[in-house]
């Protein structure tokens, strides 16, 4: 493990020598500078873990040095402890305001200085460990996501191909029965459509370029999403649309919008499970979102189903995470959230007070206001 490196900056040689001797006895590597410009040059040559910086220096004082360090991304995180003869409250506030983390007053107490230095070095070490841990967690999550997607793709496509092959075998064996051939061919077509849907969903997740948008009436977009849901599931008269913004136009991408909300409606409809109850109503409500910086549309997709499965609550938006057993599902929420975020919005899921689940989707009214292109 490398010894911590400290830069001591003071125009008084004796102060630098005293601090250097004290700190080096504790195994700390000490660099020295005798002016503000020397300090900036030393930091540019090799970043220290901590800077002890005299406030009162000719030409460029410690306040100016600290201000310049704070103005640069590569040096902003270096902690600075000011050394000053000023013990006033105003002087300390001025130093803290420009980014100093602590103060040491002259005449210097070496033991107190060492204690303050060691405290800040512990903070530096903890911060580095946190940054390293976060990096490793991101890498582990990325690897786990890639593994989950790969495994999910293989599992879903293998199952669907098994369905296709099974029905093709039936078609071959019933070649002399046109009605049976037609029914089995329709089953094959549905399975192939599932395969195509998975491929399209995966393709939409890796798109990095800005999607073209233009104004669409919200009512037309919602009706298109409902029609797509009905076509894909065969369900009808399921959705209750309560649109209080009938004449509102939003900047959107029609394919992304319709596919995302068709997936949300499908997820809500399937939340009722295999119940024979005919009342599998999905309610869609629109409103302007509150508490956001730019004009944003809020669309709520509500169901009265089983609610969020506790077993997958923390992984709801992971690819192929699903409580359903239907072949080829498990990408809808992942794709919908990805698409909405790509458009500058977001998607969250919550339990309803009286049972069921609500998906809350946010979509900016005007794309140019979101900073996404």
Which tags fit this structure?
373 residues; alpha/beta; Rossmann fold; Heat Shock Protein 90; 5-stranded parallel sheet; elongated; disordered C terminus; HATPase_C_sf; CheY-like_superfamily; kinase; EC 2.7.13.3
What features would you describe in this structure?
The longest helix is centred in the middle third of the chain and has 64 residues, at 110-173. A hairpin with a 7-residue loop joins strand 9 and strand 10. The strands form three sheets. A five-stranded parallel β-sheet has the order 2-1-3-4-5, sandwiched between helices. Residues 319-330 and 369-373 have low confidence and may be disordered. The chain has two domains: 5-108, Rossmann fold (3-Layer(aba) Sandwich), CATH 3.40.50; 209-369, 2-Layer Sandwich (Heat Shock Protein 90). The chain is α/β, with parallel strands linked by helices and 373 residues long. It has helices at 13-24, 36-45, 62-70, 89-97, 110-173, 178-205, 218-233, 254-270, 332-342; strands at residues 5-9, 29-33, 50-54, 80-84, 102-105, 214-217, 239-242, 249-252, 282-288, 296-303, 346-351, 357-364. It has nine helices and twelve strands.
């Amino acid at each position: 493990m490398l010894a911590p490196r400290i830069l001591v900056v003071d125009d008084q040689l004796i102060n630098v020598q005293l601090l250097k001797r004290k700190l080096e006895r504790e195994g700390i590597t000490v660099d020295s500078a005798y002016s503000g410009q020397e300090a900036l040059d030393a930091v540019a040559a090799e970043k220290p873990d901590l800077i002890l910086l005299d406030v009162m220096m000719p030409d460029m004082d410690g306040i100016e040095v600290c201000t310049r360090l704070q103005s640069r991304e590569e040096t902003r995180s270096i902690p600075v402890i000011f050394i000053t003869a000023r013990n006033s409250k105003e002087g300390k506030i001025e130093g803290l305001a420009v980014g100093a983390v602590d103060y040491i007053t002259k005449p210097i107490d070496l033991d107190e200085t060492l204690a303050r230095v060691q405290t800040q070095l512990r903070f530096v070490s903890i911060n580095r460990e946190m940054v390293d841990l976060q990096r490793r967690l991101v890498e582990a999550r990325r690897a786990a996501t890639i593994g989950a997607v790969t495994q999910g793709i293989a599992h879903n496509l293998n199952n669907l191909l098994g369905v296709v092959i099974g029905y093709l075998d039936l078609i071959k064996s019933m070649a002399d029965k046109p009605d049976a051939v037609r029914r089995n061919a329709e089953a094959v077509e549905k399975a192939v459509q599932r395969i195509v849907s998975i491929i399209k969903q995966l393709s939409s997740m890796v798109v990095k370029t800005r999607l073209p948008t233009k104004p669409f009436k919200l009512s037309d977009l919602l009706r298109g999403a409902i029609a797509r849901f009905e076509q894909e599931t065969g369900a009808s008269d399921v959705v209750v649309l309560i649109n209080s913004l009938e004449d509102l136009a939003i900047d959107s991408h029609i394919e992304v919008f319709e596919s995302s909300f068709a997936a949300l409606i499908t997820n809500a409809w399937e939340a009722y499970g295999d119940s024979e109850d005919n009342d599998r109503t999905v309610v869609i409500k629109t409103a302007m979102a509150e508490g956001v910086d730019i004009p944003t549309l809020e669309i709520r997709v509500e169901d009265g189903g089983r609610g969020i499965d506790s077993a997958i609550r923390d992984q709801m938006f992971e690819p192929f995470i699903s409580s359903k057993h239907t072949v080829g599902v498990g990408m809808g929420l992942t794709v919908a959230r990805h698409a909405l975020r790509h458009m500058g919005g977001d998607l969250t899921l919550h339990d309803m007070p009286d049972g069921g689940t609500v998906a809350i989707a946010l979509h900016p009214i005007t794309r140019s206001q979101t900073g996404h292109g």
